Batch of 4 targets.
Target 1
Amino acid sequence: MDEPTLYRYILWGFLVVAALTFPALFFITAPYGRHEAKSWGPTFSNRTGWLVMESPSVLVFFACWYFGGCPTDAASLGFLFLWQLHYVHRAYIFPFRIKSGPKRMPVAIAAFGFAFTSTNAYLNGRWLFSFAGPDRYDSAWFSDPRFFLGAAIFLAGFAINQQADWILLHLRKPGETGYKIPRGGFYRWVSCPNYFGEIIEWLGFAICTWSLPGLAFALWTIANLLPRALSHHRWYREKFPDYPPERKALVPGLF
Ligand code: NDP
């Protein structure tokens, strides 16, 4: 089987697994962070888990760019910039900013994350820098409204995600491991603005690339983070009797 055929199988498989995972995650909450559980086998530190899970996003996507002939047209460099802006932070800076204390992550969760980010980076990188072909993202794409509208949406989502994570990561004083009610920024409206921002980012990337792999990643992000936001929201309401009643879970004003 040649690589483009294998690629198509992987892409459709990726979409099918997203469609199956979405309903399942309403019943199973991934056991890390506040939803930590002991029954998921061997564990390692949260920090190691994040490094393992997110590194393929940086490395595989970069390898796709490199083995795709290091394209230096404006659109290709734009895709590379947006992707690495998010993932260099997520893989190599975020794990050193978390203050989770002794919290552990199941190796199984990190292994699933590793498989997911490797596949996702391959599907997006290989499409953008090789399989799309030289005419798909030529220099005109850089001035196409889809490119700059999508990039602007991505950057807005990135700003929301960063601000929300910054607020969370500053709630604990040195040595603290408990939870507090986050306030300010988009927390005025929702319990999980970091997830909301992340979803906006990848919807923006899907528009910017106008591609099936970009759309598949955005759908995966929703499938993963919407059920988790609802779990976080329920958890906040149960834990804090004074939790702001008007706050929604994920999307301001809606749900
Ligand atoms: P959480 O919001 O659950 O936690 C983020 C960090 O803040 C953790 O270190 C957590 O500590 C701490 N924290 C959270 N809430 C509180 C609180 N109320 N008081 C004190 N500290 C708090 O996010 P995730 O860990 O699930 O995700 C982290 C980032 O990764 C997010 O930006 C998210 O968007 C992104 N992500 C993206 C995914 C995707 O599919 N693209 C999938 C999963 C995450 P603790 O660990 O102790 O709970």
Target 2
Amino acid sequence: KIGNKNVELGEGDVKGTRVKVSGRIHRLREQKQATFLTLIDGYGHLQCVLAAGDLTKTYDALTFAQGTSLTLYGEMRKVLAGQQAPDNRELHVDYYKVIGRSPSDAEAITNKVSKEQDQWESSMLDNRHLVLRGDTASSVMKVRSAVEWAFAKAYKEMQFTKISPPAFVQTQVEGGSTLFELDYYGEKTYLTQSSQLYLETGIPSLGNVYCIEKSFRAEKSLTRRHLSEYTHVEAELDFIDFEDLLDHLEEIISKVITTIMDDKEIAGYIKELNPEFKAPTRPFKRMRYSDAIDWLNAQDPPILNEEGNPHVFGDDIAEAAERRMTDIINLPILLTHFPVEIKAFYMKKEDADRRVTESVDVLMPGVGEIVGGSMRMEEYDELMEAYKREGISPKEYYWYTEQRKYGTSPHGGYGLGLERFIAWICKQHSVRTCCLYPRFMGRCKP
Ligand code: 4AD
Ligand code: MG
């Protein structure tokens, strides 16, 4: 593999290790004295040199193109002083075999630029299978893989148990308007919006639990942070209070960032994608919703609500206002205590102010909300009332409600949108480039 650093590099009369390496041509430069290839194999980039002559005059060499897959044999050498190549080494090829040719349009496809942003994006997404071979897309995917692993590592260290809730469900979690409904052997069923309710049923016997699963939302608007199918990192913590939940959120986010930044390869990708990225320092800024409303109105000029008026208590802080706020404050924010009316049915109310919930959104600069969480209602009667308020039929929720009958507990949890987290770390304009094949309204291919 290209990433293998266990090879002696030749220099002067000293012979370097002879290697065999397989990969695809990423870049191609033909010069009088040699042909230079940059080879990729998913583990790195390797500069390869074919001295002009027999090696470069074959039909295979004359038809080299971006994407051509081949196996190369030769000696690894240090690059000459004053020249540059990945890891300062190059493969001096003495023999090769072409495995699969590639048409010469691959480069044109992956670099296609149109003046129309929409058209450009649409063609990039139609060709996502090829775009994924590019440096940016593959770096984002490497970071994403590292982040998923870092979450698993952090949860393991914190003694959380991983569980795998179902995707076919008959209960909504985050409101009826974004449900994907389907026919399940004749029964009305949905694709899950969140695994939260199922996680809550895990805590009595498993302790704190987490899952990394897909969630589905029929989002009927096209924004740069909404997908129809996204990866949801969710956790549920037992016998905690709201402060514990906020502390835990800071801790898990900090742990994950530390893990990925300690990995040289991953830190390198992040540096390329987002040179200004800095690990956030604890404690994060904490702000109550009501103070955020005052803050928005106090800006000069004020940041207005969706109707173009100053914000009042009870307004949703819409995406645009939220983004302005995070961009100005430019720090991670734990925004807490949202009004009951704008939050989900299961959220516990604050004792001191019954108009608000013990809820939290984590906001990041450049993206806005990346986490939504809360303490959950513990009391049976209160929950029954909440179903009524929301017009939810309690029947399908019997298994969730019964948690309150069979030994209830103060508990809470959260969900983190993995693509939004990646967009923040990798400074991506949209969550669409933070998944392998994005799904959103109007796109279900490739
Ligand atoms: O705020 P949300 O809707 O909260 C929940 O689903 C809770 N039940 C989670 C829990 O407590 N276990 O979603 C949580 C996060 C959001 O903050 C956002 O990052 C992400 O999920 N998210 C989306 N990401 C991409 N596309 C969408 N359509 C998303 N909807 C939510
Ligand atoms: Mg939310």
Target 3
Amino acid sequence: MITCSAPGKIFLFGEHAVVYGKTAIACAIDIRAQVSVEEILVPAVQMKGPGNNVDLNPRKHPYIYTVVDKFRKLADLPDDNTSSKSGKGIAIDIHSEIPVGSGLGSSAAVTIATIKALDVFYGTDLPLDEIARMGHQVELEVQGMASPTDTFVSTYGGLVRIPDRKKLDFFDAPIVVGNTRKFASTRKLVSNVASLKERHPQVINQIMDAIGTISEVGVNFVCVNDLSTVGELMNINQGLLDSIGVGSYELSELVYASRKAGALGSKITGAGGGGCMIALCEHKNLSRVAHSIKRAGGDAFICRTSNAGVRVE
Ligand code: MEV
């Protein structure tokens, strides 16, 4: 059996502004999706997960299904349900610690871990840039739109500057993630921001510029692990995200609860409207901040930024 895993991600700065070509800083975190692949005797693609060994309908797992399809072509297999030239099949088992649909890049992590697992299984030996490229292509095919950020960060791990996708010196920091458990569509939020920008171009363009500047200034403090200045800049970034309408009552509650409990900085991560926020904390405050987020109605978990991208377990 081959098992591979890939990380989720957060945005330290710059979501939404990155859609307009401004700088953003994303970072992998140490919660991961794990995908195992093994050969089975029946000629089928069986999918199990997460964790409960129930066979799942491939249509409910379009990311994995699309990856399998791509490898079928790469490994030159027949266009049926078999997944090896000898007519055998494969079982794919998915476990993920990353909450689904919450802005932490869960679909990208599952996609990238599946690509790596099938790469090893079929011996195709894809380089990392090809894994990231295929991952982005899969997200595009399944979602209709996707930025390459999630799949890139999940492939390479660590701290990444967007849009040039440059891996920066690692930023080692403890983070509390607060989840509102409210789903919000990234497509809708991006489109709402575009409409706001059309109605008030002079105002919104300046806000996008300011968010981009926060990322550019922030990099200098991130690279020297100056957590308190990074936190301060995250708070400014949060104010600007609120101003473009991607906040929500629940997100604000978690953001302010975390600050009240001592977080150095806190903001939405991802598209907003629901989903998750992040709080940058000193070690001594991690549990206090997590508790405070829970008391304010969110789910909370403690994690760290991580330099590890996709890997074979
Ligand atoms: C969504 O996770 C982040 C956005 O900036 C959209 C994107 O970068 O594709 C809102």
Target 4
Amino acid sequence: GKGHKDLLSPDRILNVAHRGASGHAPEHTIVAYQLAKKMKADYIEIDLQMTKDGHLIAMHDETLDRTTNGTGLVKDHTLAEIKRLDAGSWFNEAYPDKAKPDYKGLKVPTLDEVLHHFGHSANYYIETKAPEIYPGMEEKLLKTLEAHRLIGKHAKRGKVIIQSFSPESLKKIHALNPEIPLVTLLWYENEQGHITKRELDEIKTYAIGVGANFDRIDRAYVQKVRKSGLLFHPYTVNEKPDMKRMLDWGATGMFTNYADRLTDLLKKN
Ligand code: G3P
Ligand code: CA
């Protein structure tokens, strides 16, 4: 509940707005992040990619194709080129029932722009995507966070959480700054999710939590993670019955495209 000051307390359920309020507005746009705040999400989730000229931008895919009117790899385009693209019209076309004229022509934001826009009024749950194709991504991320005073001695603990599917990327960040809370992401494709005590102990050497796809885990999995002392944040949980089940099993928060639904559910608990 809202009574807990410490964002990282295991008693606090974190509502993480996956790519912003991406069930309602074009993902990874300022508008989607604003809506997430309005829906009382605890965190804005931001996926990072890096442009040809070394700017960190908020985008899920390594390619421009799905969420803009551009094509090709992010890493082959400069920020100036990406800024000319429309990051909203695809949503109107894909979801006519949710379309809004205002979404047309929305721009791809840089990480710096997002942090400038929301400052200390939001918490950020940031993912290093494809770090193996973006050398220097981690250093750039920490420099940007420092410039906005979102990490370091004046920042509130938990203001920023960094997540990745790459343990190497998280370990690099941990070596640069061991104070930043990190969450390691796991993905179980067709198999039932399993995790060993040994794996959890290894994760605990650098991270405070684990994230996994909610549809391949069970109560025993969640409780094993929780007993090890790690937080557990399943993704991407969009339906209320699934949200309820995750909470019942012991999840300490979750990623959702519908922060409004989770806010509503938590109000009733
Ligand atoms: O970061 C948690 C979840 O977002 C991982 O999946 O592909 O949506 O980044 P993805
Ligand atoms: Ca993500």
